[in-house]
Design a protein that fits this description.
- Keywords: Membrane, Transmembrane, Transmembrane helix.
- There is one protein chain.
- The protein has a domain of 67 residues.
- It is rod-shaped.
- The protein is mostly helical.
C-alpha cells in the first residue's frame, strides 16, 4: 500500500522543468471542476427535496384517508354489532311472548273420545 501512495505522490508532484504558470493553471481548473461538481450535487439535492414535498403530501393524504376509512369501518362494525344484539333481543322477546305459560288439565270428555 505504501508503494501505491508513493507512486501517487510522484505523479502529483510537478515535473522539475514544468512551467509554474501551467501548474497553477491546472490546479485552478481542478478547483473549478471541483466547485462545479459540488454545485451540481447541491442542485440535484435541492431539486430532490423540492420533488419530495408533493410526494410526502400525497402520502400524508393517503394515510389520513386510510385512517378515516379505518375509523368509519370500526364505527360501522360497532353499529352492526349493536343492531345484531337488538335483533337478538327482539327475537328473544318475540319467542317469550309466543309461549303461553300456565297449567292445563285434561277433561274427561277428551279422554273418552280417544
Amino acid at each position: 500500500m505504501l508503494i501505491y501512495i508513493r507512486q501517487w505522490q510522484q505523479k502529483m508532484k510537478p515535473q522539475p522543468g514544468a512551467n509554474p504558470l501551467v501548474v497553477l493553471l491546472s490546479w485552478f481548473v481542478f478547483g473549478i471542476f471541483l466547485l462545479l461538481a459540488l454545485g451540481i450535487g447541491l442542485i440535484v439535492l435541492i431539486v430532490g427535496w423540492i420533488l419530495l414535498l408533493p410526494l410526502m403530501w400525497r402520502k400524508r393524504r393517503q394515510l389520513k384517508q386510510m385512517w378515516q376509512f379505518n375509523k368509519a369501518a370500526q364505527q360501522a362494525q360497532r353499529q352492526a354489532q349493536q343492531r345484531y344484539q337488538q335483533q337478538r333481543e327482539q327475537q328473544r322477546d318475540r319467542a317469550d311472548s309466543s309461549v303461553i305459560e300456565g297449567e292445563y288439565s285434561v277433561k274427561e270428555d277428551d279422554q273418552e273420545r280417544r
